[in-house]
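# nightly structure sweep
# worker-07 picked up a monomer target from the shared queue
# config: single-sequence mode, recycle default, output format = structure tokens
# input follows
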Amino acid sequence: AEGGKVGGSMQIALDLPADYPVEHLQGKPARFLVDVVAARQVTMLPESSPEFLAKLGMGSTLEEVMDNLREELEDELAAQLWVQAQDMVLDELARRAPVELPQALVDEELRRRWVQAEGQAMLEHQFDVEEQQEAFQGWLTDPTTRAEVERRLHIGIVLKAVTEAEKLQLTPEKLEELIRDHVEPFGLSAQDAHAALRETPETTRRLTELGWYLLAVEHVMNKAKVTFEGAEQG
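# output follows
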């Protein structure tokens, strides 16, 4: 952000584009609060230079790097396809188990998410109450955000019923395994997962809730029959 200083904050005003994902905000003026946490100057090296290849850490020649990049992209695509399949299975599970969600429950979950995403930062940067309420109302009234929260709540309730009906057990060892597998794509290690589970009582509680969710999803996906179109039949 031009004009910003490391350690400082700045506001950026702009008009949101016509294809902004939140429909009712498309083309509307917006103000973003930006914390400048670091500044770096980047010098581009020739792509075939040994120094450039060493910094990439994906091979000693350009050909090796390209091969490794291709494999990495294929792995990412496979992971994305599995996530899409998982979402489809969970949506079908929810469709088969209708749940009537009280509006107050949805509003409270929207508030919780807003506080985590924006509210706490707005408070720390001394936005007034009216500005905070305006921001929260944007979450409450956005149909896409509300629909996604309703979907997540619905799936969560159904998965909780699955854990109870199937008498699933979340042992400490299984919890650590699930959390480790969940954080690895974000570059975190098994040691990071182990430490996070013991960081604070609140962190332990939240990660345990996540563990129950992941355990139920794993159980459901093991029961589901997933076939990718075009995949070889084994």
